[in-house]
């Protein structure tokens, strides 16, 4: 008797946005290792090609697209096949006190972190590229629930992502399409390496994590693989925190 593995994503076609580095790159790598065919997208063709070279064997592809441009959104969705999974990871962080917020910054952050993903999902639905039982996963943040100095706009965008996740899950449930969001805590990526945060501040901040370390992109990627698999077929509209215990305190 053949035993089926409900955690397998073998043969699933998965789109990963923001796949040129960090969490998006890790998701693409681990999903490919578990048998999925990956379609990468981002704004940097060179780095997308680097990610593609890191994937396990398979017929993977990448598309250079700027999700803040409607014509790029339509072109991307038009080129894609029917999808079993969509990982919406594209985003940006900007630390800025409220006194210095300007309209162009608001427009940019909300479009990159939320609006571009909404328009992409809409376009995929219109073009019937979201297959029945597809798993859609937003990469959000615990920042939606925990205030930090200078992080007000970013937190607001992620709060909006969480609300949209639940609304979309309800709207697509009749198709058995699942929509969830992962809320990572502090993850070590290139964004961290390029930030002005001092080593002393990081050492102090680490005390807030009961498991004794910051997150790694792989931690988020492995949870994403679970959400792509049939093992999570009764989960939708969920906001899943993964933060090394940060939110316990």
- How many beta-strand runs? 7
Q: Using the alpha-carbon principal axes, give the shape.
A: globular
How many helical stretches? 8
CATH architecture: 3-Layer(aba) Sandwich
Largest sheet: 7 strands, parallel
Strand order of the largest sheet: 3-2-1-4-5-6-7
The CATH topology label is: Rossmann fold
Whole-number average pLDDT? 94
How would you portray this structure in words?
Helix content is 40%, strand content 17%. It contains eight helices and seven strands; from the N terminus they run βαβαβαβαβαβαααβ. It has helices spanning 22-33, 45-54, 70-79, 103-126, 152-172, 190-193, 199-205, 217-228, and strands at 13-17, 37-42, 61-64, 83-88, 130-139, 178-184, 239-242.
What's the gist of this structure?
The protein has 249 residues and is an alpha/beta fold. The chain has helices at residues 22-33, 45-54, 70-79, 103-126, 152-172, 190-193, 199-205, 217-228, and strands spanning 13-17, 37-42, 61-64, 83-88, 130-139, 178-184, 239-242. The chain has 8 helices and 7 strands.
